[in-house]
Design brief:
Two copies of one chain form a homodimer. Chain A is α/β, with parallel strands linked by helices and 205 residues long. Chain A is built from seven helices and six strands, in the order H-H-H-E-E-E-H-E-H-E-H-E-H. Chain A starts with 7 loop residues before the first helix and ends in a 9-residue tail after the last helix. Chains A and B meet through helix 1, helix 2, helix 3, strand 2 and helix 4 of A and helix 1, helix 2, helix 3, strand 2 and helix 4 of B.
Chain lengths: 205, 205
């Protein structure tokens, strides 16, 4: 036991919290002491929500998004356009695209991007299942919506090579100046691409 | 269920995390997805550490610090000087003072400071038990180590009025320029007090 900690139980709880990414020991201590001030029911609700999620959450067998059922709400929704599949890295990206309300197709969650430095290869991602999904037919367009980083671009290219033989239409999300940004603060690569990939303008957006 | 969340279980876990102070919904999501990537044993260890702490942690009957036993390790240590009691706001402050290794007396944890704006009065704090502890005899000096804020000062003054009749020696921790600070950036109240409360200097610290 660390000499400074007045309680082994406290130290254990703080250590568990400090394992979370971005949570240092001081923050962990603050969070644990906050929980300790709540009543037992509240602490049990907190702890129970985590273990229940881990025990019972499923991953959609079609798109691999987290789901309470075998096939997720999006994939099983007949109102969605099953011919368009948006490829994203993770669950948060599905939520981010959904929040825009600009996409009515389905998703395919890769579970990350190819990153040799982190030991993540194509086999660790849901790329093979994407190829099978396209080969099974019914998908007309695959939209690649990965991070605009080196890893994202490598993954885009890897998927392009895998999907090109199937003849499916492939597109990537537009890169350009973020809405609300000033040109003088944009990096030159982004600004350059935004000029090359300029879109026709008819007086309104 | 929030339309954006692909899973009720996920949403519940995120909501529980987002109740913690300083944790917004985006951070909560990131932490929950991290836990979801761990194996079940790790998630159960995390959840179990919180509920076990809440169920089994005790508060020392002498100093009110968190403890695994009826009387905490510090209060039951015969090597500590029981005649000096350091009054602090909370458990973290005990750990902060212990970390300095400059204090070998005992503590008294108030559980906060008097703060009318937050609805915290003297009756919500362990002040009465401090007075009884001093009246019981054996305590020669009470060191007030509260925050140097308006609330801390009000609490210092309240304790002073309560303890003055007992004749116990009272002191407050020194206020002055923090070690490593440059004078030009110090606020004038602190700098002024550091001059008024200057200490004799014999060539070394």
């Amino acid at each position: 036991m660390n000499e400074q900690f007045p309680s082994v139980l406290l130290e254990k709880a703080v250590s568990e919290f400090a394992k979370l990414p971005g949570i240092g020991r001081k923050t962990a201590m603050r969070l644990v002491l906050h929980l300790l001030r709540q009543d037992l029911g509240a602490v049990e609700a907190f702890a129970g929500a985590m273990t229940t999620l881990k025990r019972e959450a499923k991953f959609c067998k079609v798109c691999h998004n987290i789901s309470d059922t075998e096939t997720c709400r999006i994939c099983s929704n007949p109102q969605r356009d099953a011919s368009t599949v948006c490829v994203v890295e993770n669950i948060r990206d599905v939520m981010a695209v959904e929040a825009t309300q600009q996409f009515r197709g389905l998703y395919h969650v890769l579970g990350g991007v190819i990153s040799p430095i982190d030991g993540i290869g194509p086999g660790d991602l849901q790329i093979e299942s994407l190829v099978e999904r396209v080969k099974a037919g019914g998908v007309k367009e695959v939209i690649l919506a990965l991070s605009t980083t080196m890893e994202g671009d490598s993954t885009n290219f890897y998927i392009y090579r895998k999907l090109a033989p199937t003849g499916v239409r492939l597109s990537v999300i537009a890169r350009g100046i973020a809405v609300g940004d000033e040109l003088e603060y944009a990096d030159e690569v982004t600004l350059g691409r935004s000029i090359v990939n300029r879109t026709p303008f008819n007086g309104s957006f």
